[in-house]
Amino acid sequence: MNQIVSQSGQHAGGMKELISFRIGAQEFCVDIMAIREIRGWTAATALPQSPSFVKGVINLRGAVLPIVDLASRLGFESTEASDRNVIIVAQIGEQVVGLLVDAVSDILTITDDMIQPTPDVASETAKTFVRGLIPMEGRMISLIGLERVLPDMELEAA
Amino acid sequence: MDALAAIRDVFFQECEEQLAELESGLLAMEGGDTDPETINAVFRAVHSIKGGAGAFSLEALIRFAHVFETALDEMRSGRLAPSSDVLKTMLRAADVLADLVRAARVDEDGQHPHAATLAEELKAMSGAAGEADETEEDWGDFEFQPMAAAMDAPEAPAGPTGFVVTFKPRADLYAKANEAALLLRELGRLGAVEVELDAHDVPPLHEMDPEAAYLAWTITVTGDADEAAIREVFEWVDGDCELNIQAIGGEAEGDDGAEAAFDLSALLARVQGDAPAEAAPEPEAPIAAAFEPIPEPPVVAAPVVAAAPAPLAPPAAANEPSPDGQAGGGARKAEAAAGATIRVDLDRVDRLIDLVGELVINQAVLAQRVMEAGLARASAVAMGLDELEQLTREIQDSVMAIRAQPVKSVFQRMPRLVREVAAMTGKPVRLVTEGEGTEVDKTVIERLADPLTHMIRNAIDHGLESPEKRAAAGKPAEGVVRLSAAHRSGRIVIEVADDGGGINRERVKSIAIEKGLISAEATLSDEEIDNLIFMPGFSTASEVSDISGRGVGMDVVRRSIQALGGRITITSRPGKGSIFTMSLPLTLAVLDGMVVSVQGQTLVAPITAIVETLQPKASDVHSLGGHARVISIRGGFVPLIDVGMALGYRREPLPATQGVALLIEGEGGARAALLCDAIQGQRQVVIKSLEANYRQVPGVAAATILGDGRVALILDIDTIVAVSRGEMRKAG
User: Fold this and answer.
1) pTM for this structure?
2) Domain contains B256
3) Total count of domains within chain B
4) Best interface-test mutation with B: which of A50, A64, A92 has the largest number of B CBs within 10 A?
């Protein structure tokens, strides 16, 4: 999987590669350029005084990696993590974060015009994270922006 | 431009090294070192700085270095005795030189408030040395024009007789209504004269004393006049000026031809030695800056040999390479002794340290897996793993050693501080340093400078008594501050000790009461009183002095030491002095921790904060409203904090008797007992940042990775205590 990640990149002509994954019955995707690696679940060390969607921290080859339960973050029921779950290691700005998801399903190559704007729905989380919708073989895949995945530093630290 | 900037950088880097060499050399001499190599090293240091400064046209630096060098040369050649006073001036000159170098580094060419006065002192010293020795000449006060001398010297032997007269009036000469111009005119009657004015000493206008004497003249008199006639001219000003009359050419009537020849060689040597200072943008200077002063010593070294009492050097000595052979050889020897070193970017070292840290963890995980797989201890795999473990430990130690540096680099800054503070307070102080070679992590060293500076200031300002009081107490007038470092059980222990009056406990106590730090009725042990000085808002100086009273007290020192994972203690004996002892970890990358479990989580408490561990007895634990509990320890009550509750790992408090309590002492000496489920053991752990990928978590200082590959959190004890205290207040 690592190799796929390192070989792929932005294609010319507005082509984009996305990695899609499942949380419950829904499908989501993120820009593959943000993904560093994909690894299996290992038990995390719980962090005190953290939002419920932060599962804790794990050791990623010597670095301390926070794990965000993406289901919980997106407003679904929180995941009871097991060996079947997968952690997507993503680079968000200067930080590296692990995203807990149910399974990684595919790598999609799309063009920008395939992304449809998010319809105006009431859900706050949808507005916060969903950047657009991609129809794919009769399914709907939500494109997620990762910038807001981690808890808001200034707000919560105070 | 870039290349030049790079050379400039190298020059300043080397300047720092030369300055360090200079200071340690002078200090060694002050300590009684009479090895000629030491003074040579000192001389070389100043000389190299001058040479390099020439390449970059740093005028102020060149000028000062030149005067300094001249004085050192006097000393090197034995004309100036390295007395304690002389060395003290030299040390101050070294400080000024260091300042000038630093000023030049930031803004091309700086001015220094003390440079002019010190230059005067140095000149006076080299001048005095010349006068003290009658057979020698007063060289320190003037500079020859290299051209004139270069022509004079070789042609002189057969040429016409003449004299070089150097004449420097003192203020008294003018005060007695004498006039230099008249004397010069008088000289003109004796023969052909060539007069050269030396206005080198004329200060800037605002510093000029209208009644002082700043000018000097060098007069070359050629003709039939003899020395007596010249002396006669100056008969009336004898004693009110510095006068030197030296024969040039074949001083035939001189009964000692060898001596005349020696003078010439010395003259030549000096003139050539001085030349670079005159011609600032010296072409070979970059080389001189980059390497040791090999281009110069042949000539400068000559007087050393020439001045040796027994065999006077032949005139040719000045041009012979033999003295250089000695000096250069010495330099090479010194370099070899210093060991071969390379400069490495710190980032690369840190990256390596990170990688080795990962290797150690990986190795531990692997070992555990092999154990779990049920392989026999004697199996080849298990034995191979044992070897791997040993190797990884060794690699870790060696890599950590790369970052380790001797504390010398920070100790070296202290003599100067001591001199400055001693001058400001008027207390004579001797600084004794021990264990400068003790190594500790670079970051620790960097962060040690400030607290050490403050403690030494304090030791002199508050610790040492005034000379009168010392005399009354039967102590020598000179106070002693001892700065020492040593390794003790995996930590570095640094002590700052003074032989002053010790802590005035009565006064400390009354001040603490006055400032509301303790209640008036409090009965405190001597030790507790001594420790009051670490409390925030405590300062014993009744008036805010320039030295210690900058709004920072010992509490700041204590905090910065604690931030380094260290502890500071004081022991004081009335009339004998005080000793501040700091114990610091050797590196900031690892921490000695107590590994505990709380509600299934593994946590690490820094051992530096732990005073003792205890098993709470039901009878010792008391409820204090709500969830708050206190535990009685030897008669006192300290809050009992359930770590699991404080971190939100559990909702219901752990019954105190089912756990283990860590008695801790936090910032400011506040004590508390932390209740944990069990103690797993004591371990050195590698500190990992939590903020790098996440953010700060209240109650957690950092994270670490344990042998099983899992992350464990390191407790931030002060926050936990503070938070619990807040909750207790709410509850109560």
Assistant:
1) 0.51
2) yes
3) 5
4) A64
